[in-house]
Give the backbone structure.
Amino acid sequence: MARRVPLQDPEAAIRCLKADGGVILTKFSSIEDVARVNNDAAPFINKIVGERSAKSLPRETTRCTRLFGRSETARETWLQQTALLEVINHFLRTISFSYNDAGSAKITTDAILSAAATLDIGPGVEAQSLHRDEFIWQQTQRNEEAREVYAMGQDVSMGLLVPGIDTSLANGATVVSLLSPVPGGIEIAERDGAMS
């Protein structure tokens, strides 16, 4: 089970991420801010659902992409939290050195926070099967590379799930299987040991 850590304690969040591969950040957002983000995404979700319905297509997981551009609250409130940026940059900040005839310079680049989407899974929609989002970056993550011990620098992205409603396994919450490094496959989490 993932440990719960207040966002205001970024060092503890970093320790949990290194040890467990995931953490539940408490005190991340107010209920009012979640409602604002939901309201910002609603017109886009409703349009997609309406278009599918007009074509007699079945309901499926609906995505409102480009959320940071569509929701001021997601962009200006959620993403600008100093503690969140500290956690993200601990894992994703890159340091490189440029060399030229005049000397060298150390270049530090913080993470680029660029992709966000709202997912809407309506009544009767089948939940996504358990999958590993990290495998979209196949040049760095390969099936045969079991990761029993965390190594800094192996990550190129981080996932942040913010529930827009009160979630539970019964109502289809996202299930996260912590540290499932089985080569050639996926270790299926027991429902009681997963977080949602």
Q: What stands out?
A: DSSP finds five helices and six strands in the chain.
